[in-house]
Amino acid sequence: MSENKVLDGLYYTKEHEWVRVEGQTATVGLTDYAQSQLGDVTFVELPAVGRQVAQMGEFCVVESVKAASDVYAPLSGEVAEVNAALEETPGLINQDCYGAGWLAKLTGIDLAELDNLLDADAYRRLITEA
Amino acid sequence: MPEKTPIYVWHGAHGGKLVEFAGFSLPVMYGGGILAEHLTTRRHGGLFDISHMGRFVVGGPGALAFLDATLTNRASSLPLGQAHYTLISDPEGRPLDDAYLFRFWPDRWLLVVNGANHAKDRDWLTSRVPEGVELEDLSAELAMLALQGPASDRLLAAVLGAELPPAGRNHLGIATWREAEVLVSRTGYSGEPLGFELFLPASRALEFWEALVAEGAPLGVVPVGLGARDTLRLEAGLPLYGHELRPDEPIMALPQARFGVDLDPARGDFLGRRALMAQAEDLKARAGRLVPRRLSLVAALDKGMMREGSPIYWEGRPAGVLTSGTTVPAWRFTGGEPGGESYTRALGIARLDVAVPPDAQLEVEYRGRRLRARPVKSFAAPAGPYLRPREIA
Fold first, then answer.
1. Which of A39, A61, A63 sits opposite B29 (nearest CB)?
2. Residues of B in contact with A91 (CB under 8 A)
3. CA distance, residue A111 to nearest chain B CA (Å)
4. What is the rounded average pLDDT for all residues in chain B?
């Protein structure tokens, strides 16, 4: 069953968010495992731009037909940008969770917090044991 | 351990994501997802395993009198070869269950009840069965499937190689398929203008299911799980026991009581009659004493989500609560047919104060946000072989 894609080079939370760090900006999204567990995403409540979030703090909500799920911020920082395309097409999270289905970009991050996250191998182990 | 339907193994082998529902292990969806299964049912057709439902056959010389005395609809008004919606009321006019009564035979009646209420209903009915009435629980022996959607007529006719029951909702027929008797009913829980519920011996059900899947595939018909079964019934405005119907709420709050409760004085007494008459009068006068809230469809006007339990406000005051609600997909129609594009809507059913007028501007609260919403008469309407979404503005 577990054919879920995990990309090398990203960091992951145990709650199935991914984060891609480029310079001082972190792009955040949901993993392939998360989107397959959620099923069709039908609505995303995105955070306000400018909001400060704490590592592993709730920062947005994704809704599927059946349930609402909180999304946790993999890193502390300020919400610099959100993926407005999700307002019209929340299904992008199902179609391309590591690309067009990204959720938000954070700035003002502390790279030392990456130590609290999983690398790709550790995350693969987490979801295959799940 | 949950029980298994005759199709259980097939579901697991074909990507069904199994969950426990009404004591049975059933697929909530297959690989394509809930939205796709919903949309495919509306465009082509969907096949549902619904053997979790409870199925009783009532016979014997006193059967008809028993059904007339125990069900809210009048069994003696049901012609041979037809089916109707009914409720099972307690003496206070509260629903024990809602059900469908089928008259496939002159002197025996098939009563189908909700899976979640199966044991409760059996006890209730059994305790009231008088001399001269036989109540048999055939839930294990008689499998139940549903085939719903525009292609269902063509598909079923091809598989059965026989004539279907006369066109029109609630018509019944009996067919033979590879020497097995198949009870065919033009009924369903999807709102589709064309659709069937099918009963056949459990020992033959998997084979029949596979034939429907195989011959249905070229027509675009797919197996559909419980997730889309729920969004389809919601879009059709149909009630679900445990949500719209609850053992502590009056039956007459339900709009479908118009079809499922027969209060004709000529009919004579039946269980709950006095209480239901009083509820009907209370509702007519908007007195709000016995029926303070009634069920209404509610559509969101803003993008967003609303779910069961969401409070509803009218003119700033609490005025009700959602009993069902989620995101429901629909096709954009081009001309008379579904086009290539789909969209989603936040739809719900609510218990609304009887004082709320039909054109009220409502707000539905969900996770701290309020969506603008309004009551509507229907979310969708039949258009040829399709159920077409209605514009809501």
1. A39
2. 35
3. 32
4. 97
Average pLDDT over residues B83-96: 98
Confidence label for A3 from pLDDT (cuts 50, 70 and 90): confident
Q: What is the pLDDT of residue B1?
A: 87
Angle at B18 between CA B15 and CA B23, to 5 degrees: 155
B327 touches chain A (CB under 8 A): yes
- Report the run of H or E that residue A85 belongs to, with start and end: helix A85-88
Q: What is the pLDDT at residue B162?
A: 87
pLDDT digits 0-9 by tens, B214-248: 999 999 999 999 999 999 999 999 999 999 999 99
Contact B305 A94 (CB under 8 A): no
Residue A2 clears pLDDT 70, i.e. is over it: no
What is d(CA A4, CA A1) in angstroms, rounded to the nearest whole number? 8
Task: Mark yes or no for CB contact B327/A45 under 8 Å.
Answer: no
Task: Count the Cβ atoms, other than its own, within 10 Å of residue A99.
Answer: 10
Residues 6 or more apart whose Cβ sits within 8 Å of residue B261: B72, B73, B87, B89, B251, B252, B276
The answer, yes or no, to whether residue B267 has pLDDT greater than 70, is: yes
CB pairs under 8 A between A and B: 41
Contacts by residues A119-124 (CB-CB < 8 Å, ≥ 24 positions apart): A119/A11, A119/A12, A120/A6, A120/A7, A120/A8, A120/A9, A120/A10, A120/A12, A122/A12, A123/A6, A123/A12, A123/A31, A124/A6
Distance from CA of B32 to the nearest CA of A (A): 9
Grade residue B31 by pLDDT with cuts at 50, 70 and 90: confident
B35·A45 Cβ contact <8 A = no
Check CB contact under 8 Å for A39 and B305: no
